[in-house]
Amino acid sequence: MKIDERHLVQLAAVAETGGVTEGAAMLGMTQPAVSRTLSMLERRVGEPLFTPGKRPLQLTPLGQQLAIQGRSILAASRKAVEIVRSFQSGTAGRIKVGGVPFFMDAVISQMIASFQLRERDILVEQSYGNLPDLLTELDSSQIDMAITPIGSADLKSDFEFQSILPGRNVLTCAVGHPLLRKRRLSIEDIMTYPWVAPLPGSPLVLDLHNILIMLGISELQVRYSGGSLLSVVNYIASTDALAILPHSVVFSFKGENKISIVPVDIPQPERTLGIITKRKTYPNPACRKFQDHIVREFTDLKKVIERHERSIVWGEGPFLPERDR
After folding, report:
1. If 0-12 CB within 10 Å is exposed, 13-18 middle and 19+ buried, where does residue 288 land?
2. Is the pTM of this model over 0.70?
3. How many CB atoms lie within 10 A of CB 292?
């Protein structure tokens, strides 16, 4: 025996409202149409569904059991409609975002939190990766967007890039580091102290390499490598080690009084932090809403960072050899 699920829904509506007319109105149907459905259902099961002569309508034991199943179908239908509306309005859904580790931990994670304070029904899944891996994951739809620095080279036509922050690195040390008391730094000054190496595959590896070339240094005293952002910050704060970090990352720790910026110019990367998405993909309104949130947040953050940069008394530079000072 096969029972049409729509018939069970109409039975549940009548049971819920107490009358055929009311049940029909609830479903947006006519009373004759619902009456015909109930008669068809009774013939199909071969048993009465309502107790004869009772007003308001009373279900028989079998009618009650079938109405329970109809209510489940009706509830599922209503839930499905709610899901569709929430998805289309961007108030519910899932967002998969990947990005370079230090930016994600220092900056983006806080923006995800502020986004979800308003959008509590949106799940955000965060992952890590550098540009080549992120592009591969975007191409295979493993992530919806990537937040990463990118150079001047054009992306493939399959991708779109939205700039959110110019690339800017700073020389970083512990608060109270001896270098902060110097007015002018030499190459010998920075070679005196150990360094923290950037994460393998990070754009900062190339940035540090370019700095060494400019200064004519073949190598540094690398004493620590491979740590997470928090471990790197704690290590720098507890030692006299130096590191090259993005200005926005260092700025995010401004209130903790752990690390500081050595106020000297260093070569800057020709990169821009931005959001990469795939052009041809299924629409995800929640993802678009999240992307707009990130752009707004960085618009405000950019202004604050620029004010912070202007407040720093930058020393003379770039680095000069001892003989030229």
Report:
1. middle
2. yes
3. 13
CA–CA gap between residue 240 and residue 78 (Å, rounded): 62
| AA identity, residue 65 | Q
- In this predicted model, what pLDDT tens digit does every residue of 139-191 receive, in sequence order? 999 999 999 999 866 677 889 999 999 989 999 999 999 999 887 778 888 88
Kindly state whether residues 126 and 42 are assigned to the same domain: no
73 and 209 both lie in a single domain: no
Number of domains in the chain: 3
Find the farthest-apart pair of alpha carbons in the chain and give their distance in angstroms, rounded: 111
Q: Give the three-state DSSP class for 267.
A: coil
**Interatomic CA distance for residues 150 and 210, integer angstroms:** 16
The amino acid that residue 56 corresponds to is P
Listed residues 73, 89, 105: the one ending a domain: 89
**138 contacts 278 by C-beta, under 8 angstroms:** yes
Task: Give residue-wise pLDDT tens across range 126-143.
Answer: 999 999 999 999 999 999
